[in-house]
Design brief:
Strand order of the largest sheet: 2-1-3
Order of helices and strands: EHEHE
Number of helices: 2
Low-confidence stretches: none
Distance between the termini: 14 Å
Number of strands: 3
Strand content: 25-35%
Radius of gyration: 11 Å
Helix content: 25-40%
Mean pLDDT: 96
Structural class: alpha+beta
Largest sheet: 3 strands, antiparallel
């Protein structure tokens, strides 16, 4: 069975937010606004998304 994935889209700029949040956005693979990536739905990725939930939108695929 294939792994579940989630689609993560950056909807707000990380400018003006703490360095750790900027680093988390980059670690998710996002480079600019409206950039979208698909990541495996793991607890580690969910934790990173929770940390920057005010900057991203998540859709289950």
């Amino acid at each position: 069975m294939a792994e579940k994935t989630i689609k993560i889209t950056q909807v707000k700029s990380a400018i003006g937010f703490p360095k750790d949040q900027k680093a988390t956005v980059r670690a998710l693979g996002l480079k600019r606004m409206n950039d979208t990536v698909e990541q495996a739905d793991t607890p580690a990725v969910r934790g990173m998304v929770f940390k920057v939930k005010h900057l991203v939108r998540v859709e289950e695929v």
